[in-house]
Amino acid sequence: MKGNQYSAKYALIYTSLVSIILLTPLFFYFIYMKNIHSIENELLLKEKSLLIIKAMQEYNQHEEYFEYPRFKTFESGLYDEKFKPIFSLIDYKIHYFKDGYHVEDNDAYLIVKLPKDRYFGASYLIVKNKLSFASVYEKVLYILFSIVILIFTLSIFFLQSFAKPFQRMNKQLDNFIKDSMHEINTPLSIINVNIDLYNRKHQPNKYMQRMKAASKVLSNIYNDMDYLIKHERLEYKKQNINLDKFLKERIEYFSEVALMKNIVINLNIQESLLVYMNPKQLQRVIDNTLSNAIKYSYENSKIDVNLHKEDEKLYLSIKDYGVGIENVESILSRYYRENINKGGFGIGLSIVKSIIDKENIQLIINSTPKVGSEFLYVFASINK
Question: Is 169 a member of any domain?
Fold first, then answer.
């Protein structure tokens, strides 16, 4: 999961850089093409103005009337020196009366100063048309669409390229865990059996207690790896479980581990509360939460375990007073470890997440660095 996050992050960075590299020239190309289109339109207006002037120059005063040139997509008119129309086909209120080319919104017009008293008393010729950048937009959109396809293709390429090392590393780690399973089970069983036999024949001592606690930590890691390997191909049948009794048994199991750090586990457990769940999956949830609470608690501290029913739901809270969690969002990700010096593979809480997601169990994590963490599980209750 963490590898996927890193690969996605780097892929996003490279995709963003490529996008900037490709889109920046497109932006300037768009501005350039608009300017070119506007210049071309100005030349068209000048061309039409020259046609009108030429027609007026060729007009013979002896002719009965002057046929003013008309164009399909252009409007024009003759104006006096105060810009009052002498003759105009322009249905538009002009705001800027100054020689030259002007653009207002989607309207473009050219004002040409005429020789005084030469063309029907007109001082100015104005030629106007609608300025449309539709062809420019069409070209830019086509290029943009091509760039988007290219960026999408490159983003997939970058994502796959950056993901490969992480995928290879995760695969190697998974293979290592699978291979280790066969080597751990037998010696771990021998250790546990011999510790139990020794304790039956001799007075328990702190050395045996430490060995027993260490073997339980190893057993919990082994159970996590065993579940991780087998959970996809096994069917976990559910049953009604007395949660308070089950919880007390697991706390008793970890009592020796807590004792090694002189941690006191305080219980506030409401009795006769049932949940419908597979025992092995419930054990993974509770064992991993308790194991982490002990692992990351300060020595000579405590762990508060509370279980109660409220509004047809069961609330299980396991709260420690330890180092806390810096990155709560990542704590449930596989192979993520906040403190590499604490040992473990970083798979326990990812197993918890996979189980609670499947069983619709809500998990609320409250944590403050250097103060402690609380894992609050909300189960659906079963009425007797």
Answer: no
